[in-house]
Amino acid sequence: KVSTEDPEMAFCTLANREDLNPEEGSIHHCLYQFTRNEKLTETNKLLCDVCTQRHCGPKNNIKSEKKYVYTNAKKQMLISLAPPILTLHLKRFQHAGFNLQKVNRHIKFPEVIDLAPFCTAKCKNVAEGNTKVLYSLYGVVEHSGTMRSGHYTAYVKMRTMNNHLSDLVLRGQSPQALETEPVKGQWFHISDTHVQAVSASKVLSSQAYLLFYERLL
Hints:
The structure is a single chain. The strands form four sheets. Strands 5, 8, 9, 10, 11, 12 and 13 form a seven-stranded antiparallel sheet that branches. The protein starts with a helix and ends with a strand. It has helices at 2-5, 27-34, 49-56, 163-171, 200-204, and strands spanning 38-40, 46-47, 70-71, 73-75, 85-89, 93-96, 99-102, 112-114, 134-145, 150-159, 185-191, 194-198, 208-215. It has five helices and 13 strands. GO terms for molecular function: cysteine-type deubiquitinase activity.
């Protein structure tokens, strides 16, 4: 839909992606790879209705699938609506022959993340002129063990109320005030019935499986 309305803006983002230079093994690198521009060629060509009609006439006159016209194309997945709560799910398994193997690699993630390089230039709920879409970390789920068994624990931040987030969730209003710092609060590690206060550095060194961020700006 975006590319049909304005092809030149279809692959534009709120902030320049090329300025990122994301570190490999970081959540920024994961997002950069997930939203990269892909070329669809050869067996991945796109079926073009316009080209097909131009060469073969109206669609209802096409009797053979061989008459469909396929063309090279570009594809890119970008965020068109910035969510109040951002949930990032890391793929922590890989194929090892016929088996699945858990990926134990540490992925770096920040307390505050900017989604602007991964948002379309026409992101619906970002105030005009804003070139940042900031989120603050408030929860992490960690898994220890293997693909067959293990244990889930969580890190949760007890924090003050985020009025901007309430406005966004309840009234759909985009945050206007500039907030670049993480929401203040105390982190806790929760394992079954055991709860312990921990530092932010302990949280950031965890082997994250799920990441939960709340929108700041």
